[in-house]
Amino acid sequence: MQLELTGVRLPLAPFTLEVDATLDARVTGIFGASGAGKTSLLEVIAGLRRPTAGTVRLDDEALSDAPTRIFVRPERRGLGYVPQDGALFPHLSVGDNLRYGRRLPPRPDGPSFTHVTEILEIARLADRAVGTLSGGERQRVALGRALLASPRLLLLDEPLAGLDAPLRERLLPYLVRVRDVFSIPMLYVTHSPDEVMALCDEVLLLGEGKIKQRGKPAGIFVAGAAPRYVLRDSGHSQS
Amino acid sequence: MLSAVWQITWFTLWASALSLLLILPPGVALAWLLARKDWPGKPLVETLVTLPLVVPPVATGLVLLKLLGRHGLLGGWIEQTLGVEIVFTWRAVVIATAVMSFPLLVRTARVAFENVSPRLEQVARTLGAGPWKVFGTITLPLAARGLMAGAVLAFARGLGEFGATVMVAGFIPGQTVTLALSIYQQVNLGRDDLAWPLLVVSITLAFGAVWLGECLSRRRPHAA
User: What CATH number has the domain bearing residue A71?
Assistant: First the structure.
């Protein structure tokens, strides 16, 4: 997978998102403080926001190109998107949520329903109502739903941010397992250095809509006390 | 006497139901457009839609009379092309009721659509659903209770419609007389004893409809 962001611009209050980058890591972390433009960048890639300038290409396919007015609609991009709150459909059961985006017939190379639900340990939840799920279960179902749509790229927007620390600790291994078992590249938005260190092969440090730093997580963060990792140059966590 | 009350009641229910059927598709579509899209002229349309709620009903009725009358802009054209008369017929009752109920339907339906999180619709799009599938599988089911509440309130408003109807449909026994018109007529003639049964029916129907509307308006926990 190669995601090219060329001269991508999107005005946001109080700054403009401006990104130039080619991403090809298995898991790329997008790290930054709240309001740095991380979610907006993900929404641009998902097709939920239209950039005013620049080009977004995925494996040589233009997803959006401002000069030629190309804009592939979100449903045609083949990307999986998991927002912070999971955004499960409250009127559907867990099983119907999981099957919502599933292609029929399923893509031969796509993950199977059984495999996904086993890996995420959500098979027993299929008949439950969404409202009865715990925070961790909701996030796993949201992740499963996105995986079952056979995405070419998975966009995860702070999937653990709304959860308490012990629950985050318990859910992180599921994300690592998804990374290792399914060969679906991921963009992982977070403001937690610990999550970047556990999950990402590369990290972009975003500040006020611009890439401030880019590199291997070990080059960006150093071991600290609590949280366990902090930014190498600033000496403090952004979380 | 009893048969007259039933006839008037059925006619009122029928006219109100038909007017609801007429306004339901455009009302729901307009409510969705107002809730979800920004477009030029939106504030003007919002104002026009609300107008029948605040303008005196007889004034709205007069506008309809001038518009739909034999020499009116629309009425003349309809009579020439379709050979159908509007004013002082049951059609005028249905149209007047529709016009007066429309704002209630649109306002309630708009709130129902606004209560559906756009985030859910966005996620559905990323899962491969086109705009129509998203509307049918996410937006509509989640807004359904609010839409039904709007429809019930519009229906209830129709049952009590008087001012616009009397202007555009007059009082023609057996053809245009609704519960509200009949109560007014009986009281005017000093026949309060005949007005009472109509009043009881009116209040019962209105109570039932508003109560149902309130029940439907109460949001389920998942509708946010």
Answer: 3.40.50.300
pLDDT over threshold 50, residue A209: yes
Domain encompassing residue A171 = 3-87+151-231
Rounded to an integer, the average pLDDT of B104-120 is 95
pTM: 0.86
Q: Which of A89, A104, A138 to mutate to test the interface with B (most CBs of B within 10 A)?
A: A89
Whole-number mean pLDDT of chain B? 92
CATH of domain B2-223: 1.10.3720.10
Instruction: Flag whether pLDDT at B60 surpasses 90.
Output: yes
Helix residue spans in B55-190 (DSSP H): 57-68, 73-82, 90-114, 118-126, 131-134, 140-159, 163-169, 179-188
Q: Which of A85, A88, A100 is the best residue to mutate to test the B interface, defined by the most B CB atoms within 10 Å of its own CB?
A: A100
3-state secondary structure of A151: coil
Residues of B in contact with A89 (CB under 8 A): 120, 124, 138
| Interchain CB contact of A75 with B (< 8 Å) | yes
Q: Give the phi and the psi of residue A109 in degrees, each rounded to 5.
A: -95, 0
Residue A34 lies in a domain: yes
**Residue in B closest to A146 by C-alpha:** B127
Average per-residue pLDDT in chain A?
90
DSSP assignment letter at A131:
G
